[in-house]
């Protein structure tokens, strides 16, 4: 879901004395920072039940912010904001997304200044990935890939589909493929995730020699939230996913409701039409 459909818990003006800055005296002497945060959550269950366990305890989050800023030292407030957002998201499962603003009222620039701040938005992203192999021990390559994806930073494997044997796609004569799909939640950006998937492919001995040719391991990003992007290195949604039954079959097993953000059809609908 996008942040527009979540409820918000707002923390405004939390003052923390901490040691962050480029200059040595900032790290040694410290200064005041002001933190503003918006937590994107679903408060419906807590609102109906009056049960704190079903909500995010903003008092606890305030202490987490204070403890984190005082326990660490960074040169840039950009880094402070980045690491703080990650810390809150990891330690509060009910928080789906977060806005973090770090204000630095005492910024040493030698000019009259009320404050300077950095504000970022971070969150968990729902991603679908296709897996394939037709060289060597294909099952082991897929098993290892699932394990390694789950070990990526700030990434959780949600579901993995049954492995299926399929005929090659693209007209190159080669052995049958073992295919599957998986869904994950990650804080990695699309390009960061792509780079990590390419690392996993290389570790499996993947060589990009023949287009649509045999491979030890193939990992493709199919969907990333409802993002539509097209760059030299990455197209999301995957440009041919709606044409490939070896992609749609396993994905329909674990997430038939996922909707293609361009065609507006669910995975189940695309598979049905392809048949």
Automatic annotation (TrEMBL):
<dbReference type="GO" id="GO:0004150">
    <property type="term" value="F:dihydroneopterin aldolase activity"/>
</dbReference>
<dbReference type="InterPro" id="IPR006157">
    <property type="entry name" value="FolB_dom"/>
</dbReference>
<dbReference type="InterPro" id="IPR000550">
    <property type="entry name" value="Hppk"/>
</dbReference>
<comment type="similarity">
    <text>In the N-terminal section; belongs to the DHNA family.</text>
</comment>
<dbReference type="Pfam" id="PF02152">
    <property type="entry name" value="FolB"/>
</dbReference>
<dbReference type="GO" id="GO:0016301">
    <property type="term" value="F:kinase activity"/>
</dbReference>
<dbReference type="GO" id="GO:0046654">
    <property type="term" value="P:tetrahydrofolate biosynthetic process"/>
</dbReference>
<keyword id="KW-0456">Lyase</keyword>
<dbReference type="InterPro" id="IPR006156">
    <property type="entry name" value="Dihydroneopterin_aldolase"/>
</dbReference>
<dbReference type="GO" id="GO:0005524">
    <property type="term" value="F:ATP binding"/>
</dbReference>
<comment type="pathway">
    <text>Cofactor biosynthesis; tetrahydrofolate biosynthesis; 2-amino-4-hydroxy-6-hydroxymethyl-7,8-dihydropteridine diphosphate from 7,8-dihydroneopterin triphosphate: step 3/4.</text>
</comment>
<keyword id="KW-0547">Nucleotide-binding</keyword>
<dbReference type="GO" id="GO:0003848">
    <property type="term" value="F:2-amino-4-hydroxy-6-hydroxymethyldihydropteridine diphosphokinase activity"/>
</dbReference>
<protein>
    <recommendedName>
        <fullName>Bifunctional folate synthesis protein</fullName>
        <ecNumber>4.1.2.25</ecNumber>
        <ecNumber>2.7.6.3</ecNumber>
    </recommendedName>
</protein>
<dbReference type="Pfam" id="PF01288">
    <property type="entry name" value="HPPK"/>
</dbReference>
<dbReference type="InterPro" id="IPR043133">
    <property type="entry name" value="GTP-CH-I_C/QueF"/>
</dbReference>
<keyword id="KW-0289">Folate biosynthesis</keyword>
<keyword id="KW-0418">Kinase</keyword>
<keyword id="KW-0067">ATP-binding</keyword>
<feature type="domain" description="7,8-dihydro-6-hydroxymethylpterin-pyrophosphokinase">
    <location>
        <begin position="211"/>
        <end position="222"/>
    </location>
</feature>
<comment type="pathway">
    <text>Cofactor biosynthesis; tetrahydrofolate biosynthesis; 2-amino-4-hydroxy-6-hydroxymethyl-7,8-dihydropteridine diphosphate from 7,8-dihydroneopterin triphosphate: step 4/4.</text>
</comment>
<comment type="function">
    <text>Catalyzes the conversion of 7,8-dihydroneopterin to 6-hydroxymethyl-7,8-dihydropterin.</text>
</comment>
<dbReference type="GO" id="GO:0046656">
    <property type="term" value="P:folic acid biosynthetic process"/>
</dbReference>
<dbReference type="InterPro" id="IPR035907">
    <property type="entry name" value="Hppk_sf"/>
</dbReference>
<comment type="similarity">
    <text>Belongs to the DHNA family.</text>
</comment>
<keyword id="KW-0808">Transferase</keyword>
């Amino acid at each position: 879901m996008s942040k527009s459909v979540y409820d918000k818990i707002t923390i405004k003006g939390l003052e923390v004395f901490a040691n962050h800055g480029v200059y040595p005296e900032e790290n040694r002497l410290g200064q005041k920072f002001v933190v503003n945060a918006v937590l994107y959550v679903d408060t419906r269950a807590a609102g109906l039940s009056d049960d704190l366990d079903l909500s995010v305890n903003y008092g606890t989050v305030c202490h987490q912010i204070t403890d984190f800023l005082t326990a660490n030292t960074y040169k840039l407030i950009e880094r402070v904001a980045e690491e703080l957002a990650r810390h809150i998201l990891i330690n509060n499962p009910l928080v789906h997304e977060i806005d973090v603003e770090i204000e630095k009222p005492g910024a040493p620039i030698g000019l009259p200044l009320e404050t300077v701040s950095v504000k970022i938005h971070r969150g968990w992203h729902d991603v679908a990935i296709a897996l394939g192999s037709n060289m060597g021990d294909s099952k082991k390559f897929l098993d290892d890939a699932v394990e390694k994806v789950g070990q990526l930073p700030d990434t959780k494997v949600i579901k993995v589909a049954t492995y299926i044997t399929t005929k090659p796609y693209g007209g190159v004569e080669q052995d049958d493929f073992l295919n599957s799909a998986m869904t994950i939640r990650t804080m990695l950006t699309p390009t960061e995730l792509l780079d990590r998937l390419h690392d996993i492919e290389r570790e499996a001995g993947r060589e990009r020699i023949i287009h649509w040719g045999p491979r030890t391991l193939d990992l493709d990003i199919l969907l990333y939230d409802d993002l539509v992007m097209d760059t030299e290195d990455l197209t999301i949604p995957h440009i041919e996913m709606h044409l490939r039954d070896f992609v749609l079959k396993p994905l329909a097993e674990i997430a038939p409701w996922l909707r293609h953000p361009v065609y507006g059809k669910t995975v189940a609908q695309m598979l049905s039409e392809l048949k």
